[in-house]
Amino acid sequence: MNGIVIDINPTILHVGHLEIRWYSVIIMLAVVAAVLVATRQFKRHGIPAAEVYSLLPWVVLGGMVGARLFHVIDEWGYYSANPLQAFSLWRGGLAIWGALVGGGIATITYSAAKHLPLGRLLDALTPALLTAQIVGRFACIINGDAYGGVTSLPWAFIYINPGSMIPAQLFGLPTQPYPVYEMLWNGLTLFILLRLGRRFSRDGLVFLSYLSSYSLGRFALTFVRGQNVFWGLQQAQIIALLTLAASLIAIVYFTRVKRSPVGLV
Predict the structure, then answer these.
(1) Buried b / exposed e across 89-101, counting CB within 10 Å, b at 16+?
(2) Integer CA distances (angstroms), 205 to 61, 82, 104, 191, 192, in order
(3) Does residue 119 fall inside a structural domain?
(4) For the chain, how many structural domains are there in total?
(5) With contact defined as beta carbons under 8 Å apart, do 100 and 64 qualify?
(6) Are 126 and 193 in contact (CB under 8 A)?
(7) Is the dihedral of CA 183, 100, 237, 216 positive or negative?
(8) Most exposed of 44, 46, 61, 102 (fewest Cβ within 10 Å)?
């Protein structure tokens, strides 16, 4: 079989009952990378860099809660039978759509409380968010929890470590390296927004462009994954279509109205 063999134990070591996993370490590195990028972007957008550290705990907490909640709902059949596993964040299982919702609510609340322009704040956070997504997907590569369907492509991933979270029926088989596809798409989006974002005349358009791009990429790339659930589409694809439509409508509206909408200036 052709492919890249992934034989990395997701668990680094055990200390008593404490389990240290690659997933947790990489997610922390993703947060650090996001902070470094956000600090620079805040300065460029005229927002005090110190606000990054005040906003960070709320965005991380909101994002984690939302990401886990969406994942548990998506895998309700498993978690309804194993309710305590819903709190095992260190084992993986964070849905990006939930992270966007939870983190978005935290950002909106913080913006209102500190009287910061929401659109500018979201634009400054967008490159940091993309950076965190790119770094965070390395955790999924090791974990095997964001797998694709069986393929004969030479760059397929073949999981052979017993600790991986790939389903038993795919264990040892070459599968689509979905995390890599998403990392490449997000990297391209980040590059384009960093190059073209300064040309946007309205606050909030960088963030809306990110939403449109990510939704489009997520909808298309998710076809390499299994588990179709509704009209031949996965839950993530349905959310992607709705988000894409909403963000495109918002972009058209914001670029046509004479004044920026309330809350985005």
Answers:
(1) bbbbbbbbbbbbb
(2) 25, 42, 15, 16, 13
(3) yes
(4) 1
(5) no
(6) yes
(7) negative
(8) 46
Q: In sequence order, what are the residues at sequence separation of 6 or more whose Cβ sits closer than 8 angstroms to the Cβ of residue 104?
A: 62
Structure tokens at 190: 């980040």
Residue in the structure block whose two tokens are 């909640």: 69
Structure tokens at 88: 């095992």
What's the pLDDT tens digit per position in 19-33? Answer: 888 988 999 999 999
Asked, for residue 261, whether it belongs to a domain, the answer is no
Which two three-digit tokens encode residue 111?
A: 């913006």
Q: How many residues does the chain have?
A: 265
Tell me if 264 is assigned to some domain: no
Cβ neighbours for 17, distance < 8 A, ≥ 6 positions apart: none
Whether residue 263 is contained in a domain is answered as no
- Phi-psi domain of 175 (left: phi exceeds 0; alpha: psi -120 through 50; beta: other): beta
What is the per-residue pLDDT across 99-123, written as a single tens digit (0 to 9) for each?
888 999 999 999 999 999 999 999 9
